[in-house]
What does this fold into?
Amino acid sequence: MAKPATERPKLPSVGRLGLVQPQAPAQLDRLGWNTDAHVELLWSLSRAPDADVALLAMVRLADALGADWEELNAELLTDRALRGRLFGVLGSSVALGDHLVAHPQSWRLLAGDVELPSAHELRETFTAAAEKAEIARGTSSAVPPLRDLYRDRLLVLAAVDVASTVENEPVLPFITVGAHLSDLADAALDAALTVATRVVCGDGPTPRLAIIAMGKCGARELNYVSDVDIIFVGDDSADPNLSMATRVAGESMRFAGDAFFEADAALRPEGKQGQLVRTLDSHIAYYQRWAKTWEFQALLKARPAAGDPELGKAYAEALMPMVWTACEREDFVSEVQAMRRRVEELVPAGVRARELKLGTGGLRDVEFAVQLLQLVHGRNDESLHVKSTVDALTVLGAGGYIGRDDAANMTASYEFLRLLEHRLQLQRLKRTHMLPDDSDDEAYRWLARAAHVRPDGTHDAQGVLREELKRQSMRVSRLHAKLFYQPLLESVGQPALGIGAGMSTKAAERQLAALGYEGPQSALTHLAALTGQNGRRGRVQQVLLPTLLDWLSDTPDPDAGLLAYRRISEELAEQRWYLSTLRDEGAVAKRLMQVLGTSAYIPELLMRAPEVIQLYADGPSGPKLLEGDPDSVAGALVASAGRHADPVRGIAAARALRRRELARIASADVLGLLDLTDVCNALTSIWVAVLQAALDAVIRANTPESGVPARIAVIGMGRLGGRELGYGSDADVMFVCEPVGDTAESVAVKWSVSIAEQVRALLGIPSADPPLEVDIGLRPEGRNGPLVRTLASYEVYYAQWAQPWEIQALLRAHRVAGDLELGERFELMADKTRYPEGGVSAEAVREIRRIKARVDAERLPRGADPNTHTKLGRGGLADIEWTVQLLQLRYAHKVPALHSTSTLQALDAIGAAELVSEADVDLLREAWLTATRARNALVLVRGKPTDQLPGPGSQLNAVALAAGWGSDDGGEFLDNYLRVTRRAKTVVRKVFGG
It folds into this structure.
């Protein structure tokens, strides 16, 4: 039944109005808002972002107005627009509420038809206020009136901006808000310059000075609260000179900070260390000779904002053309990549998800991508010479540099994130880009209401906001890659997802070069091949490649990575799981790109063991790459080989498992998932398993009907014996045998020699896999000695004829394969020689030192740099290992803990026994770890064994990343390597040299 026309709506309860503070009923009574006439007004109040805060501010405003309160109260009953503006701004901004209470008559600015003044009107208003203020040379009382004027203008803009949250007022577009704030900043800067000039110069002559707006102000997309980046340009052609101009500039910055906002001149040439004011000629000279890429990127936003208009115009005309040639600079790519890294490192990982500006999928991602595309293509397309991010997205879409839909979506996401940034800053007029803590539901409720977010029937307002934030962040991250790479796919003739034609081939090559691809033409060929595949494969590649290329561009060698990706994709063209895994498992795709763009060693393994790619996924307890247990893998390898009667087929099965395990270990290593000691242990375990499998296979094939004539054990030497193998290490071994039963020793030895030779030959069969080279050069008498000896023969030899180098070699002897009991007896026999009672003789120590000196003088390869050769260089592996082994020879008879074949374990024992100071032990340990990591990384990066670190460049950057440096900054990695090894060499000279 319809209500009678005279019946008023009933007064809503406090709870229904969303007022939760206990004092709310008393506050309503105090305002007189407790009659049926106030129902509409109260419902308007309830729609404020924070109704309690708005109500409290209204009570304070009523007290401040005194007798004038009734006028405002009456206006509120009839002026819905005033209600929307006033309740909206008071519920959004505590700071502007405080301003309104301090200046209660300013409410009148929000009544009636409110229009935002133009830039010209703002400038006239502020200039008039500055000229009206009482200013004498050296003093000024202009701060309070100009500060109040600035806050009044902020109040009006904010009220119009948020009015739609309360009443059905039009939503103010983001670009309008940013432009008006920038116009307001221009007017304020002009006023500050006027005041500063009168303070410094009085009635005397004034210097020519132009203020150039940079950053968001230059682009006319300023925040409510932001530092305003500026640059000063002066003129020394007439009095007063630059000294006076510098004083005026400094005073204008101080005044602006007191009255309006922080003016920041750190973007000037040489930054905070540079002159505050330079002439135009000085600016031109600096940018021509010294400026970095980031400074040209900053100039994209440069705009004359205040001061001398002719000087400002001359500055823009002289410097802006330089912006559009910046991408041709030799270091453009490396500097752009370094800028991206610095931005990412600015935000602690714990708050990255809350950072609107610098977090993943945040505002900086959008701005950086847009600016890079402008720099790359702006020289050839003047339509890109715009300053605003939104305008740039529009022209980039219109020019085919990004998809039109992508441009529209990125613009929407950017404006949404900027809206949230504005609301967060409005609350207390503080500079912030940080979302509330995820557990703060009330803060999210307020932010949702302030940003026009409403419940959707499934979630309340804060729930909708949280979901929208996730969606927008994911969309920005996805589009960030598409902005760069989707048009590249279109340029090779593969329009994707219904988007129009892409950029030209030349533009595509420019863009790939700017993104780090040194061979852009080859890269385009690879893209054409990948996306030109028929049917499903081509379509999936079109979807995948924008993101994959983005990840590849962050690797040290994206060209090699893209080629490797093409080869693997073509090899696995018929494997449906491959592209499905990359599409559905983001972690797999990202890790694969990091590996392919860093390592030449791993792609060759993945070509023949592609199932390892599936291990890049995350399992219940972390990456599946870590699920391999070395002992279990070794057992499986030996068992697999043992299922084949033919030794060649058996070792082929062993090679397949070894290949898979090498790919797994190396991938986990490059991705930073394994410690160095775990890597060395796993590599040793797989080598030992291959040796055992080969030995078993050959013995099975050569066992006579009467049974095996001898038992054989394989003794690991060098790094194999110490379980410290690297990717490029050979297997240093010795073979020991013992007759079985009453077999003649000569028969047993002859049979054992045949077995050993077949094992070496079997493992040495040419293969595409990393080689399996067995080195027997450390046996008694070296390469001239018998290939196999009996245990008794070894014992006699070492007791009577052992040379110091042979005794030293025994320090790392450890049984690794074959007959376990025989191997253990060999170790016990070796203990008598390597750990003799009383230690080795002084003569033996001198001989070892002599041999080491000869190695240092003769073994370093011709042309190698002795400072960066990881094995034989200064403070390298040989230095550390010879020093440790000399201490073992001298003191192992006293310190049982030194009876270890591991360099690291021996170092621990040396420190514990205080044979060397703990500080020196730490230096030796750090050098050994650093050199071993570098040596392993060299193989991973180059794909073949090498000991020499490369010079500065992409290869050194890749080595740094593969060595676990934490970034691909090869310069920093090399500096650290040189520092560590230099300090270790000092210890070596002191300890090894006596």
